[in-house]
Amino acid sequence: AQKVTQAQTEISVVEKEDVTLDCVYETRDTTYYLFWYKQPPSGELVFLIRRNSFDEQNEISGRYSWNFQKSTSSFNFTITASQVVDSAVYFCALSTSGGSYIPTFGRGTSLIVHP
Amino acid sequence: DSGVTQTPKHLITATGQRVTLRCSPRSGDLSVYWYQQSLDQGLQFLIHYYNGEERAKGNILERFSAQQFPDLHSELNLSSLELGDSALYFCASSVDPGLLRNTEAFFGQGTRLTVV
Q1: What residues of A are in contact with residue B33 (Cβ under 8 Å)?
Q2: DSSP reduced 3-state for B83
Q3: pLDDT tens sequence across B2-48
Q4: Which SS3 state, helix, strand or coil, does residue A71 take?
Q5: Cα–Cα distance, B91 to A36 (Å, whole number)
Q6: How far is the C-alpha of A48 from the C-alpha of B85, rounded, in Å?
Q7: Which residues of B touch A50 (CB under 8 A)?
Q8: Cβ–Cβ below 8 Å for B48 and A106
Q9: Which stretches of chain A are DSSP H helices?
């Protein structure tokens, strides 16, 4: 069975603060993929990043960075110098070989960035 | 724009009715996934089709059914609707040439279904 836990239901920050969204996953498979998606108020789901289980390199894309640690089964997402436009619900997802690569999503973290 | 098109965007219907949600995947994508997003259940996987064939089923009720047509568009049929079926229904597509490789799934904007 595969599971994704996003323990933070809602985070509220002031613009320019850094914020980290936590994601903890569970799987017995050795081959798996992790994803982050953003759901802005308009409702669509926007793909942000995909990592596979064999690549633990952290990734940085502009103000976004991701910290993948297999030792703690975590794939955390940090937004540096947050902006109001970052306000959205962020979903972490996991797909595994044993799960036919069907993405399983966490419950999401609602990020509110105040001006 | 993800390239995945879902229609209609909004749908309001009465309990007991039947509705059909439509999804056109990105050009070249053979896989279509349906998800239901409700406040209490989060994003739940319903069903996956690949090149016209059902590949995997998730938490899909017997009152719900889906199919993928030769032109690769997909329809999700919801019947005997109940108040609890009110949710945002997402379709996603991906290249996914079988189970050997995985790519990201691109999501449509969703269909918001309200059952009254």
Answers
A1: 102-103
A2: helix
A3: 899 999 999 999 999 999 999 999 998 999 999 999 887 789 999 99
A4: helix
A5: 17
A6: 29
A7: 103-104
A8: no
A9: none
